[in-house]
Amino acid sequence: MSLRLGDAAPNFKAKTTVGEIDFYEYLGDSWGILFSHPADFTPVCTTELGKTALLNGEFAKRNVKVLALSVDPLDKHKSWINDINETQQCDVNFPIIADEDKTVANLYGMIHPNASETFTVRSLFVIGPDKKIKLTITYPASTGRNFHEVLRVIDSLQLTANYSVATPADWKDGEDVIVVPAVKTEDIPAKFPKGHKVIKPYLRTTPQPNK
Ligand code: BEZ
């Protein structure tokens, strides 16, 4: 059974490029991203890991710890990191799991046998401080991820975890948000004193409350 939103993220211990990691200990009270790659020394993965490293400050600002995975061995990961740093002008300073026996890949359903029997697809899990799965995205090997979209969703997840709001299509941090249907229109002014608009009885917006 695949992992679904709201499920507990399974804990594991794994060999990584920065030593053995216990996943829950690594996350601590932070948010987390666990994402898999098909293989080392492949072009799309090289750009993805480089982009992740370049966005290090953005992840840190959001209190997000990043952990990558592929089913290649540790010495291969370490040698590949040199290539990533050289070609993407970055410093890969987050751990990459060497999941040779596919323990973590199987735990998280990262192998999709009809796509590849042997390699992980591009799975991505966002995990909340409560260790629950908040987002899953799966890309095929041939399509690199949009990491700005990943950051955008994290902004939405963190905002909606703390306020009775939802974010509309294509929302970006700083834009107006939707008041959730559970809040009665007459209760909006007290909850959202920055103002609100009633476009339809079921569609009410307010300026982003934490800005
Ligand atoms: C890549 O990461 O470049 C890649 C991996 C597997 C298939 C196609 C592309």
From TrEMBL:
| InterPro entries from the UniProt entry | AhpC/TSA, Peroxiredoxin_AhpC-typ, Peroxiredoxin_C, PRX_1cys, Thioredoxin-like_sf, Thioredoxin_domain
| Keyword Transmembrane in record | no
Q: Please give the Gene Ontology molecular function terms for this protein.
A: peroxiredoxin activity
Q: What top-tier enzyme class does this entry carry? A: oxidoreductase
The organism's lineage? Bacteria, Pseudomonadati, Bacteroidota, Chitinophagia, Chitinophagales
Catalytic residues as annotated in Swiss-Prot or TrEMBL: C45
**GO cellular component term of the entry, any:** cytosol
In its UniProt entry, the species of origin is given as: Chitinophaga lutea
User: What Pfam families has UniProt attached to this entry?
Assistant: 1-cysPrx_C, AhpC-TSA
GO annotations under biological process? cell redox homeostasis
Where does the sequence pass through the membrane? none
List keywords of the entry alphabetically: Antioxidant, Oxidoreductase, Peroxidase, Redox-active center
| Domain Thioredoxin span(s) in chain numbering | 3-159
Give the Enzyme Commission number.
1.11.1.15
What family is reported? Belongs to the peroxiredoxin family. Prx6 subfamily. Belongs to the peroxiredoxin family. AhpC/Prx1 subfamily.
- UniProt-listed NCBIfam families: PRK13189.1
Q: Which SUPFAM superfamilies match?
A: Thioredoxin-like
| Name assigned to this protein | Peroxiredoxin
